[in-house]
Amino acid sequence: MDIIDRLAEIFKEFPGIGERQAKRFVYFLMARNSAYSENLVELIKDLKKETAQCKECFRFFIVSKNERVCDICANANTDSSVLMIVEKDSDLESIRKSRVYHGKYFVLGGLVPIVEKTTKSRVRILELQEKIKREKELKEIILAFSISPQGDHTDTYVRQQLKDICDKSSIKISSLGKGLSTGTELEYSDNDTLKNALKNRQ
Amino acid sequence: MDIIDRLAEIFKEFPGIGERQAKRFVYFLMARNSAYSENLVELIKDLKKETAQCKECFRFFIVSKNERVCDICANANTDSSVLMIVEKDSDLESIRKSRVYHGKYFVLGGLVPIVEKTTKSRVRILELQEKIKREKELKEIILAFSISPQGDHTDTYVRQQLKDICDKSSIKISSLGKGLSTGTELEYSDNDTLKNALKNRQ
Amino acid sequence: MDIIDRLAEIFKEFPGIGERQAKRFVYFLMARNSAYSENLVELIKDLKKETAQCKECFRFFIVSKNERVCDICANANTDSSVLMIVEKDSDLESIRKSRVYHGKYFVLGGLVPIVEKTTKSRVRILELQEKIKREKELKEIILAFSISPQGDHTDTYVRQQLKDICDKSSIKISSLGKGLSTGTELEYSDNDTLKNALKNRQ
Amino acid sequence: MDIIDRLAEIFKEFPGIGERQAKRFVYFLMARNSAYSENLVELIKDLKKETAQCKECFRFFIVSKNERVCDICANANTDSSVLMIVEKDSDLESIRKSRVYHGKYFVLGGLVPIVEKTTKSRVRILELQEKIKREKELKEIILAFSISPQGDHTDTYVRQQLKDICDKSSIKISSLGKGLSTGTELEYSDNDTLKNALKNRQ
């Protein structure tokens, strides 16, 4: 494989990028001047240098002076009584931007595949268990996974793994509410959504 | 306007049909043989003859021997303790097909526009009030409108209009649950959906 | 099948209409008042009464006083030296609206399927042969079919069937030019289009 | 702007990438291990080192031992009697892959905007003129631009700029054929495409 194909292979791993667009990225980089490429290279290097993974919630954050934990975890105003478990950083950022939640987060690092034996090595379930034991003010854990077979499976799995710890410390486990979302038209809703909307009526 | 344009104008009112497709429908009918057109004409006439609007729930149903009310309203197995208010027939059919609800229905006949003075003439709110007074076994009314500004406005409007009657008879009013629906990805959720999902967590 | 399903079956044959939308059409008709349905029924009947198939070009046209041929065929300004063969009425209308062609037309009534034995019964090839023999001023026949395997097959088939008649009367047979169409981006063009664009460069 | 926003800004310039996906790319890079980022950085650097712009056709190519010209230009089997002018590298690669053309290429480096005074500085028209003077075997120049207002404008502009040189050396100038492309349906064709298809019939 020549350099063009090798770089295209790397770009193909970027989220949402197929073979054709990966190739276009390479041609785009070739056509741009050296300054652009050098700038890109420096920023990618800086990204690794200037960011770190929070030791508490495992989200990536911008380090200013060698902090161990991120600004959300370090902020005294963050509500320590509630911990939301999300799949990945971009879910966390999306919820953060919505300003509807002011508690702590924990990034699980993935969903649990339905057929999977080596689960523990893939998601941070041990780290989550340790985290919960450390959080003395915690009263509720909110599971915030996408509504899909894998999201549902992860919800069930995490509840099982946390049951004992939470029972012992009287921590409640909840999941984000299911039902009709903005723009949903009843006429085109699937059975599960209708079932959840009916069950969760209020 | 010639006959082609006049018929296209009518087809343009069909749900989801634009000018171009309306014209195609006319050419399609011209190209099909007379038997097809005659069959279509007969079925449209029969539709009006063989269907009627239920005097109880206002849905359209197939009449066999001059019934006043539809099969759902007439069926002794239908749960009379609960009444679901929907916008239109196709919403009702969608919920019916999902087999998650076994109570009665009421077709409101539309949503209430946000800026609207002559509301009463547009939706069947008076008919709904009368209906509720007649339903002696009724314990709960479920408002089942789409999640949109107009759907929300209709929800608020209907609650106001039914408040007194329901208070008097101790009938509960609920709305379909809001939250994450099937396939929703947290990363791409709007603020309202996240807010509802968080509020309705369980 | 009840009347709702029977009418939906008919609507499903309309161009571009699937099962779901066919059903919506039926609910739409039920919900509209009788006047709307009656109007629709009358217009469909009128369409058959007020239109006729031109005896010369086989397009459908609006009849005013029992004419045998359509306005294009009857118009003395129509260029009789050129005859464009199209698949269907809506192709003819599209070309007519573009005002780039001022000759006569002939509606073949379909494309010739690639695997097909009873071709003659499906498209009006015999009628076309008769038509050409009658047209004394004809100098060129333009085949105007879509660029697809079936369109190409029909092009080849019609050329074969007309060869002898056209050779005898020195009538030229041409096909619409192939190449880049508006909006085509070279980067995303298929091989056949590039081949045709290169071959037909000028 | 922090490092996340700065890198997202760079990714936003990638072809087809909006703000949201640019941000996702950054989170993706943060979440991947250092080895992945380092690999990406090395390949981007190598791309600049291992590729060069051909001094003859201006396409980018992979250099093996300091060549001045690319493999197409250097290949004795390339047909020197014909030169195809394309907008950009990815157009060239698309035509090359189609294996319908075996002549030389010239990458113009862009299209000529319709309202533009400093045209010469933007596209390689001077380099093209020089190139043509050098090519002693050249008999035909093929202009291969997309069918769009800008593509058409560039076609006209390049023809004007090359007219004298080509007239002097009896070099023919042609453009890729316009007409129906694969999949085009007559019913939905725009006027220009129909006009071109009719004009270029054969």
TrEMBL record, chains A, B, C, D:
Per the record, a Pfam family?
RecR_C
PANTHER family per the UniProt record, alphabetical: RECOMBINATION PROTEIN RECR (PTHR30446)
InterPro entries cross-referenced by the UniProt entry? DNA_Rcmb_RecR, Rcmb_RecR, TOPRIM_dom
Q: Which organism is it from?
A: Candidatus Nomurabacteria bacterium GW2011_GWB1_40_7
BP GO annotations: DNA recombination; DNA repair
Among the GO molecular function terms of this UniProt record, one is:
zinc ion binding
Residue limits of the Toprim domain? Answer: 81-181
Alphabetically sorted, this entry's keywords are:
DNA damage, DNA recombination, DNA repair, Metal-binding, Zinc, Zinc-finger
Name by which UniProt lists this protein = Recombination protein RecR
Job description of the protein? May play a role in DNA repair. It seems to be involved in an RecBC-independent recombinational process of DNA repair. It may act with RecF and RecO.
Which family does this protein fall into?
Answer: Belongs to the RecR family.
